[in-house]
Design brief:
mainly beta, 136 residues, 11 strands
Length: 136
């Protein structure tokens, strides 16, 4: 099995086109204060799933120190692709996290308890503007 992750500012499921419409793909996120609640939209793409089996998937999110700051419940997924396609499935999730410091967080896709993919996201703290030092 193989997995890919994409983190976006929004994801919409387009049932007419049988696919997902992605907003802006994020490599970094700037927050105004810390701690701060962020909402991430994650697209999980799984390939080469056994055609007749299911797989348990979950996301585990760790901060720059390696501490777990988010964990989604396990979801059971199975192949939904046609016979002429590589067996797999796409899943979109929305995760809300509280970040307490700048740095790189790692969103990990867990398949049957094993890490299958990882996505780094840099969290930055917004700098004060010189004209606004009285409120920084």
């Amino acid at each position: 099995m193989k997995a890919q992750l994409m983190i976006c500012d929004q994801i919409a499921n387009n049932t007419q086109l049988k696919g997902h419409v992605l907003g802006t793909v994020l490599n970094s996120l700037t927050v105004p204060v810390l701690p701060f609640a962020i909402e991430l939209h994650v697209l999980v793409k799984l390939f080469y799933l056994p055609r007749e089996d299911s797989v348990d998937t979950a996301l585990s999110i760790a901060d720059a120190n390696g501490e777990i700051i988010g964990l989604t419940p396990a979801t059971v997924l199975r192949n939904y692709r046609a016979a002429d396609q590589i067996p797999g499935v796409d899943q979109d999730l929305t995760v809300t996290l509280v970040v307490t410091e700048p740095g790189i967080i790692h969103v990990r896709c867990m398949l049957n308890g094993e890490e299958a993919a990882s996505y780094p996201l840099t969290i930055r703290l917004e700098e004060c503007q010189a004209s606004r030092t009285d409120i920084c």
